[in-house]
């Protein structure tokens, strides 16, 4: 008889959901610089378990329930911003990161290498105030 380690199974399930949500929100991130991919995974690792729990509670699913795939519901994400706790901070980081990465993906790395590097640095440094829009305006 093989006994599965529930922690390992939960970690694998969480990683699968993180990958699912990343693909649905941002797309393929593998072509991005490794430090940006690491930052994305860090933010999603914080966000996804909280988001899944919010869905579980909202839809009255049993404890331990996991979705088969995961896409962010904009309304649910907005609702999470109203919690005065870590949820608000985690959700803000999630939304900010998605905006920054979409901006980075839209940049032509060959045509604007300096701007691309600045955006990478902004994402990696967790810069909350410097956005791609600020970079475009300053440019």
How would you explain this protein's 3D organization?
The chain has 139 residues and is mainly α. The radius of gyration is 17 Å and the shape is elongated. α1 packs across α2, α2 (34-58) crosses α4 (86-106) and α4 (86-106) runs antiparallel to α5 (113-124). It is built from six helices and no strands. The model is unreliable at 1-6, 129-133 and 135-139 (pLDDT under 50).
Sequence-ordered SSE layout with sheet pairings:
Blueprint: H1 6-25, H2 34-58, H3 74-80, H4 86-106, H5 113-124, H6 132-138
Helix pairs in contact: 1-2, 2-4, 4-5
Q: What are its keywords?
A:
disordered C terminus; 66% helix; 139 residues
From N to C, what is the helix and strand string? HHHHHH
Distance between the termini: 63 Å
* Broad structural category: mainly alpha
Shape: elongated
Structural Rg: 17 Å
Q: Unreliable runs, pLDDT <50, ≥5 residues?
A: 1-6, 129-133, 135-139
Helix content: 55-70%
Number of domains: 1
The percentage of residues in β strands lies in: under 5%
Instruction: Count every helix, treating DSSP H or I runs of 4 or more residues as helices.
Output: 6
What about the largest sheet?
Answer: none
Query: Average pLDDT across residues?
Result: 84
Number of strands: 0
Describe the structure concisely for a colleague:
By secondary structure, the chain is mainly α.
